[in-house]
Amino acid sequence: MTPQxxxxxxxxxxxxxxVGALDTRGRLLHYVEAPIEARRGPQEGLALIEDLxxxxxxxxxxxxxxxxxDLELAGIGIGATGPIDRSQGAIQNPYTLPTWEDxxxxxxxxxxxxxxxxxxxxxxxxxxxxxxxxxxxxIQHLAVVTVGxxxxxxxxxxxxxxxxxxxxxPEGGHQVIDPQGPxxxxxxxxxxxxxxxxxxxxxxxxxxxxxxxxGSGSLLWxxxxxxxxxxxxxxxxxxxxxxxxxxxxxxxxxxxALGLGLVNLIAFFVPEVILLGGGVMKSYPxxxxxxxxxxxxxxxxxxARQVELRLVRLGRQAGVIGAGYAMLQLLNTTFxxxx
Amino acid sequence: MTPQxxxxxxxxxxxxxxVGALDTRGRLLHYVEAPIEARRGPQEGLALIEDLxxxxxxxxxxxxxxxxxDLELAGIGIGATGPIDRSQGAIQNPYTLPTWEDxxxxxxxxxxxxxxxxxxxxxxxxxxxxxxxxxxxxIQHLAVVTVGxxxxxxxxxxxxxxxxxxxxxPEGGHQVIDPQGPxxxxxxxxxxxxxxxxxxxxxxxxxxxxxxxxGSGSLLWxxxxxxxxxxxxxxxxxxxxxxxxxxxxxxxxxxxALGLGLVNLIAFFVPEVILLGGGVMKSYPxxxxxxxxxxxxxxxxxxARQVELRLVRLGRQAGVIGAGYAMLQLLNTTFxxxx
Lengths: 339, 339
What we know:
alpha/beta
């Protein structure tokens, strides 16, 4: 019996690792995820990733409708929070994966599982996933903006990922929006990520709370106390939803910055569709009025109103599916369409 | 005898019309230019363009090494200051061509000269020219930034112009750099063009002069008096060159903005080469230190230091050559490589 090839997609984020086993039509056979503490080092992180891959494979096999020997792993695609060195298969990211600098992620996985592996930026992987199976199917100018711990951008142009010089992944999240804004590790003041990412939202709320004191009566104090941790973007969204004025101010400011970053993306690319994803965009309805107002007020020299904003559809699984797709594209290029 | 096909390239700017007759290898047979007063209306402007085309053709024919009947006009390519509607062949630009809104520029030229004509954005035409015959030959990720009356951006990716939805030309000149900056017709405050274009430089110098008064002793007063017109970017460059502190301040500020805009362009595209052109960039050495410092300070997450900044090589003729190339590309696509 001919074994059915499957691929594994790995999505390595700053706080979570997600792993999925996929068939060649993009059907997710099994999916697992686990928190990662990047600062405990790449060795521990890689061991976790290997365990999760093994788990996903075992579960995919045991739950398969067909007999176990019917499934055969063909490759592993990894999408990792950037920067990465794609040609070396190395993670170069001490920023959102503390201590992960010059980490070869492909060799250990290739030797453990005996199959090829490929590395993409996580935003690129998610964009490929949405283009293949999600909200961006068939879109010839597709921008994807992922707002989570940081802000990632990716661009799928005529069905292919846009890459810069030396195949590098662009980082639109570090465009400068406000040169008087807060400093970022990228060297800028007021880059997009420093103003509109989940990290920025949490920090801005913390700063405002600290300056106003507990007496401001913000719901954020209560949420932070209950959770026994610092205010984060999720709490800000929850408090804003409940009408908390301070949280609403933070959302308004972040929405302005989010909108301005989209204005610039539109000025440079004029895409047909911009997909919005990432944890922060789960609360997109809170941001939507200000984002739309900012876009409507700008860009009269390009048809900005024709650019459609959509939410991603695959959610947390986009990166996994897209990383698997990247591996499949590579297998097809290398070995023909037989896979 | 087989006639040798030639094309005419037209570069319609906010203040000048340039026209060239080219052979199919990109050799400029004849070139003419004349000032245009756009606000006198499209009819007068179109008549001027027709006259210039006829002049360029006549001169190309009379000066040709071969007999006159040897040259045959095959088409006319136009690059016009945007926005344009490429599919309609119409200029939609009341901004830098006052009164030119919804002006069909192709039909009159096609009927007058009996050949096909095509319309491109001027920045796109200049980019094609530099890619074909200038400083961008063979560059697979080529960005071109034209700093003149406004700021135009164009991107030649793998040998083809990047176009957005509906084939529109992006307008990176209207990315927002500083939301506290001066208002622009595009709807933004502090867009790139409003901070670093020749117009912006002239206006900023005028404002600073007005606020400081003649007693500031700036050389700009003298230059403005001598020329009997308002201070413009050329005078600012001249005064800065001579060490005038106010002019140097204006150049420093514009250079900061120019650098930030390039930082953002690099973040989004990570091109191999950025070509700088337009009237203001004739004084690029004045801007260079601050531009390079701004880029060096930012973008640590992409290999910005590998991005090469070059000056355009074709200068004032880039648009004409590129517009001719656009026509040739179209003729080759439509009629095969026989032209």
